[in-house]
## 1
Amino acid sequence: MKPAAREMLASGARTLGLELTQQQLAQLDLLAEELKKWNKKINLTAITDDEGIATKHLVDSLTLLKVVRGPGRLLDLGSGGGFPCIPVKVVEPTLAMVSVDAVVKKISFQKNAARVLGLANFETLHARGELLAEQYPASFDWIVSRAFSDLPTFVSMALPLLKPEGRIVAMKGPGGKQEADEAKVKLESLGVELVGLQEFQLPGTSDQRSLLIYRISKN
Ligand SMILES: C[S@@+](CC[C@H](N)C(=O)[O-])C[C@H]1O[C@@H](n2cnc3c(N)ncnc32)[C@H](O)[C@@H]1O
């Protein structure tokens, strides 16, 4: 990435309370370069400029760390080009990751990126999220997604895979609260409750973001 984009990444992360090491910066830079290289052959993202990648993919993925903490097992459903899971893994390596996408070429990209970046405990899976319950029953502390699906679809897919004390985190844009309100009754009938809602501005932009956090209902 150009120096200006690297600086946007470092300062965006700092705004989130994350002081990136030189090694983490170099790994995220490498991820951006691999993304641009592969994107010429396969369609991974519409965002192709360094500044856009720095803020809208890298810093945006790291906003998840406002809520998620390691150690633990994290599942990213519909991870596409590896967002948010790869940047989060780089910055919070104590999280063991499973990254799932239904499109094989996206998973091939992630496998390559994980190798080039030297990520350990980062499993990639070419699969549909609906079909994971047998292989991963009640297995994850965190199940997350960004730009994946509506809340009821995501939550129903995540529930059989979530540990009893685990959390489901949906990364949303400015309409997150409204979506949560509209889905409230449906989500309660599925057996989850909203335990956190964070609304904030994506650092380095004027874009609004929200994080919706659910757990299995206690009553
Ligand atoms: C809009 S992309 C978002 C990718 C990434 N999370 C991001 O924010 O950049 C949605 C991704 O979900 C994947 N997907 C859609 N339905 C899926 C399913 N049922 N199981 C697994 N992946 C799915 C698609 O292949 C696509 O890569």
## 2
Amino acid sequence: MRSALRSPIGLASVVLLGFLLALAVFAPLLWGDRAAAIDTDALQQGPSSAHLLGTDSLGRDIFYRVLVATRLTIGLALLATVIGVVTGLLLGSAPTVLPRWAGRIVTSAVNIAVAFPGLLLALFFAVIFGTGTVGAVLAIAFAITPSFARLTQTLTASVSGRDFIAAARVCGVGRFRLLLRHVLPNIAEPLVINATLAAGSALTAFAGLSFLGIGVQAPSYDWGRLLGEGLNRIYVTPAPALGPAVAVVLAGLAFNLFGEAAASVAGHRQQSTPGPRPVNEATVDTSEGGLLTVRNLRVAFPGNNGWITPVRGVSFTVHNGEMIGVVGESGSGKSLTALAVSRLVEHPGVVTADRLEFAGKPLRSTSDRELGTSLAMVFQDPMTSFNPTRRIGRQIAEVSEVHQGMSREAAFRKAVDRLRAVRIPEPERKARQYPHEFSGGMRQRVVIAMGLMGEPRLVIADEPTTALDVTVQREVLRLLARVRKERSAAVLLISHDITVVAQTCDRVLVMYAGRIVEELPTDELFTSARHPYTTALLAAVPDMETDRDAPLAVIPGRPPEPGEIEAGCPFAPRCPLADERCRSEEPELTALTDGHRVACWRSEKELMDATAGGAA
Ligand SMILES: Nc1ncnc2c1ncn2[C@@H]1O[C@H](COP(=O)(O)OP(=O)(O)OP(=O)(O)O)[C@@H](O)[C@H]1O
């Protein structure tokens, strides 16, 4: 409001609106009697000092009638707006809470209704509901509804992709609660602005219906009705029509200018707010049965020319208390793998697997409650993992309220305790602050604290330190290591930085083009890595002995897009060792030694040679 008042348009609209609202409240009290007083000696007079806008056919003062009509005109316009906006909001958010088929029907109906001009809809409903005030209010309300429903759908869709919604989902927050707590507060601003603009349109539309005789009926009167009466004698004396006409224009202008000023303030603020960022992840394979068992995991999406499969048969196992790193270039399928094991891949994505088990149970049949408390996710950009409109403490507490049935107070106390556990200074005070009041590193620690509200057995951290400086990065990694040690939780750390993984993890999974190409213990990474892709990744890491005058080592070429993977090893076009077989047949992930697997024809040949040599 303060920002809006600083602009001339905002100031003018607020003054005008204030004036109109004051008139709406006080005019009927002050001048109601004078506006209703019949004077048979002054019928249909023109403007004079006694009657500024003249009198009507019963000698009533038109100036006072215009002032007194402010209440009914604005009141009815606001009532129609409220009904229209609320109905639009209900229809627009219905697809979020209804089953998919029902949501589609609502969306299609709204799309059809949006195609009709508002005034046409108003006239159509006016005929259905009949002439009169109630009919006109409903007609205008339902004329506003489709555009609001559409706006709500669009805004909801834009918020639904944010990480904090995914985080709330993985915590098992129900659809209604998700809508009320997480979606609506984040789309309220544009909705309110558009409702203000709609109020201006409703006001003029209402005046139009009354003017046409299908709105307010005598003895009640609004500006539209007064305008209609004045128009009958506009060629004799224009003032009786001019008065209500000016009032309609001024009020419509006030609402529209206010909406515009609010929109420009909001737009300005949004430009300086960081937008949502994508997340990423990857995976590898291990022996039978662990905390998380993944076998032949595939994630596919419909593309323009058939299905594309960014994750193509990933298998790995995470054991209790293990810390596993997943590395790979952008687009290798790391994030999708992590989303798949967290049940967060959205329609139209399709997840299939020969085996996908968490804590010994098929992931499909693990309850939201169990998954919400035993699996914690830490995304790359913690800002988008939080709902910006809610205090940190309350957001963290929600996990225990939803899953452990704790009271608000107990859950909040636990949240403060967990903030203390991740070494947030002054946790009581910090719990009452909003996400934007935290630094990046602190937010990341808060996300981890949120995961600790349950009893996490697996923490999936997707590039948790990418946006942080090295000091804070080390703190967050230490915290993850501490969580793992103190709670015996397994950690799946996704990172593009192979050195971070080498320093912190027990095993590393290297992903390329939607598959795991090598898996080995991190202490063997620098000595025994076999896949040319892994060695190229390691060679690209500068160390203290790197010649600072020479150009940094890079891997030539780029990884293939999911839709353009051809026969053969996907790394072959970039591999200096590739031969004919590499270009025609894709190698399987094969065990070299216990705990070391690699998908490369060259390694397999060496292995066979070595075996043959040993046998001889
Ligand atoms: N919803 C989607 N629809 C279609 N394709 C998708 C979708 N999500 C991801 N992809 C594709 O899947 C591939 C793998 O994506 P993913 O996010 O898992 O990669 P990543 O290895 O985590 O990369 P980065 O490190 O850049 O995040 C990408 O090529 C991406 O374009």
